[in-house]
Design brief:
This protein is α+β, with helices and mostly antiparallel strands. Helices cover 15% and strands 35% of the residues. The chain contains two helices and five strands. The radius of gyration is 15 Å and the shape is globular. The N and C termini lie far apart (38 Å). 15% of the residues are buried.
Length: 114
């Protein structure tokens, strides 16, 4: 098993793009989630072309400013957490990663001391 093979069958969608916004990797769940849009054939396409306005402009700003973004959505009764974040190698910006996974409607929240 290669070092990063765990991500292929991870139960959340993982999509990676480079610093220019070109999609470079998708795990199995991301390919399934985006099947109607082309699934793995989206690899090599610009992520900005995959988003309608105003999301496209927001994503372009996030990429330019290298800022993370997190929110929840609900579609067809399924709630998901979306987390988009810059990724780096040795401190150098290399692109963005989007994680998307199901969350329960009654997701507990804990405040820890420390």
């Amino acid at each position: 098993m290669a070092e990063h093979d765990w991500v292929l069958e991870f139960p959340g969608a993982v999509t990676v793009c480079d610093a220019n916004g070109v999609i470079t990797a998708m795990n199995d769940e991301a390919a399934r989630v985006f099947a109607e849009d082309g699934g793995r054939s989206l690899i090599g396409k610009n992520v900005l072309a995959c988003h309608p306005e105003p999301a496209r402009t927001k994503l372009a700003e996030m990429m330019s400013e290298k800022l993370p973004n997190a929110y929840t959505i609900e579609k067809a009764g399924v709630r998901k957490l979306i987390y988009q974040s810059p990724w780096t190698v040795n401190g150098s910006f290399r692109g963005f990663v989007e994680l998307s996974f199901r969350i329960p409607a009654d997701l507990p929240h804990f405040t820890r001391k420390g």
